[in-house]
Amino acid sequence: MTTSLLTQFLYAGLATFGFTIIFRVPKSDIFVCSLIGALGWLTYQVASGYGFTAVMACFLGACTVALLSDIFSKLLKDASTIFIIPGIMPLVPGAGMYRMMLELINNDMSGFATEATQTLLSAGAIAVGLLVMGSLLKMIRMAGKKIRAAF
């Protein structure tokens, strides 16, 4: 399993690297974006390995991407979206979208409904993961400011 996770980590990093080129990420941020995408995918794979559903694994992977993007945006003094957009790409359920359309073309409405539900739930989990982590980090920062102001 370790070799498989390492291989997937590397492939996810390479896929994210490709998206950094497409999205014209500044050269100084390409490595960090690739690392964030790979770690988000690794989180997804590890969560799946521990028995989490694909939807929950997507949520956890998105939370990882959002957290790391926020951390690196502060460290590198860049916008977090520079890291989030390419970093989230390995988690996007593209294969699910393909299978969903294939079932529709083959006129298998039961298969289509199953694939559509899974795909839309996974996409929603990604959105909710980014939202929850962003909100949580904002609340932590606000609490930290209030604590510092009190002293």
SSE order and pairing:
Blueprint: H1 2-22, H2 30-49, H3 54-76, H4 81-88, H5 94-105, H6 109-150
Helix pairs in contact: 1-2, 2-3, 2-4, 3-4, 3-6, 5-6
Describe the structure.
With 151 residues, the protein is mostly helical. It has one domain. It has six helices and no strands. The radius of gyration is 17 Å and the shape is globular. 32% of the residues are buried.
> What structural category do the secondary elements indicate?
mainly alpha
Shape: globular
Count of individual domains: 1
N-to-C terminal Cα separation, in Å? 50 Å
Annotation field: number of helices: 6
Poorly predicted runs: none
Can you give me a brief rundown of this structure?
The chain has 151 residues and is mostly helical. It is built from 6 helices and no strands.
Observed structural traits:
151 residues, mainly alpha, 6 helices, 0% strand
